[in-house]
């Protein structure tokens, strides 16, 4: 998603890169636990290469030394990370759609028909961590609560009903129902699929095939706390026309005191940061370095989370929310993605803390320990 042009600030005029440290010391005050979070940033091959992309994710995790239980509590993969993102219409995307119902049918080869769901379950089971992974969903006759009866997480832990945060006079009236969604599946530490989050605000590329979900949701995880999820464009103003200060997704997270806000993404690089292709290899400017991030993009994400930091805002004073922006890098069909996946610590009444980031062209895994304050 490419946002409208806004100053690179967090809403209070501060740049979140000021005082950024790779390894921050623990917060002062009481702690409940240490949260270990990670996100994977890849440049996925497209055109039916889901299995190869799944293998790449596993290889990057191994290169990062993440190969056994106890290293990560929550792992976040990008929006539609294994399939690519840009499709022309419903027919064009048919071959890569995944169905939770199909993944549970006996005899179904999940690696072929549901590669994202299979990867999420495999990683969750082997690493004994929660895994959130974006995928294009065929939701015919499917409920978002896909395996709640087989998980230790009860159905009462879900936000019911979903919170519709759209500006209603901006809702298009000409979109047909497709039962296809840009989604993110959550697997628990045992590998059970427990919920499917669906994108609430659609970007132009989504509108060609997907349907808007009815609203934002969270799930209460017994050992991690309250996890709220948005998908890429969900972090922007609805239709790019809603008031900027509505901060729909982060206000939802603040109002419901989310402990974690995870956002799988396919976020575009700002046009002014894209070098002419022929100049990239010879360029001496900072944008040519794959390890350097898009600073304006990261600052924009922090700004869109302003309600989580406002001293007199929606959240409780002193409440901390860990924000995970899991983006992809590379190019697809002429569009360049921003990479720059980031992890923030947002505390009500405090400046946001950028705990770490990846470069805009860097494939890799970002891992951070967050020392969580409890009130």
UniProtKB/TrEMBL annotation:
Origin organism lineage: Eukaryota, Fungi, Dikarya, Basidiomycota, Ustilaginomycotina
Domain CN hydrolase: 35-372
Pfam families cross-referenced by the UniProt entry: CN_hydrolase
Example of a GO biological process term: protein catabolic process
GO molecular function, one term: protein-N-terminal asparagine amidohydrolase activity
InterPro entries with a match to the protein in the record: C-N_Hydrolase, C-N_Hydrolase_sf, Nta1
Protein name as catalogued: Carbon-nitrogen hydrolase
Keywords for the protein's UniProt record, in alphabetical order: Hydrolase
PANTHER family xref list: PROTEIN N-TERMINAL AMIDASE (PTHR11750)
Domain of life assignment: Eukaryota
């Amino acid at each position: 998603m490419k946002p409208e042009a806004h100053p690179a600030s967090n809403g209070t005029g501060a740049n979140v890169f000021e005082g950024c440290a790779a390894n921050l010391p623990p917060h002062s005050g009481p702690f409940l636990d240490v949260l270990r979070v990670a996100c994977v940033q890849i440049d996925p091959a497209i055109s039916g290469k889901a299995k190869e992309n799944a293998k790449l994710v596993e290889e990057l995790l191994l290169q990062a030394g993440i190969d056994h239980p106890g290293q990560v509590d929550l792992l976040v993969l990008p929006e539609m990370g294994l399939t690519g993102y840009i499709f022309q219409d419903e027919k064009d995307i048919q071959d890569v759609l995944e169905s939770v119902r199909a993944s549970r049918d006996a005899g179904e080869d999940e690696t072929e028909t549901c590669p994202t769901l299979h990867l999420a379950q495999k990683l969750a089971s082997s690493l004994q961590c929660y895994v959130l992974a974006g995928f294009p969903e065929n939701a015919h006759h499917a409920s978002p609560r896909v395996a709640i009866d087989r998980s230790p997480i009860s159905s009462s832990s879900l936000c019911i009903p979903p919170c519709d945060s759209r500006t209603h006079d901006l809702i298009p009236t000409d979109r047909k129902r497709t039962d296809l969604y840009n989604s993110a599946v959550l697997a628990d530490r045992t590998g059970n699929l427990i919920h499917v989050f669906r994108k609430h605000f659609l970007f132009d590329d989504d509108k060609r095939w997907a349907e808007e979900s009815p609203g934002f949701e969270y799930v209460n995880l017994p050992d991690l706390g309250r996890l709220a999820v948005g998908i890429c464009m969900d972090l922007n103003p609805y239709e790019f026309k809603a008031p900027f200060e509505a901060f729909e997704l982060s206000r939802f997270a603040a109002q419901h005191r989310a402990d974690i806000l995870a956002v799988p993404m396919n976020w575009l690089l700002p046009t002014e940061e894209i070098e002419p292709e022929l100049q990239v290899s010879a360029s001496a400017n900072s944008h040519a370095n794959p390890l350097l991030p898009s600073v304006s993009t990261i600052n924009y994400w922090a700004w869109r989370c302003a309600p989580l930091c406002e001293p007199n805002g929606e959240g409780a004073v002193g409440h901390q929310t860990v924000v995970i922006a899991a983006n992809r890098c590379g190019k697809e069909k002429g569009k360049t993605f921003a990479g720059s996946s980031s992890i923030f610590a947002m505390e009500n009444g405090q400046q946001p803390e950028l705990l770490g980031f990846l470069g805009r062209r860097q494939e890799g895994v970002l891992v951070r320990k967050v020392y969580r304050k409890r009130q």
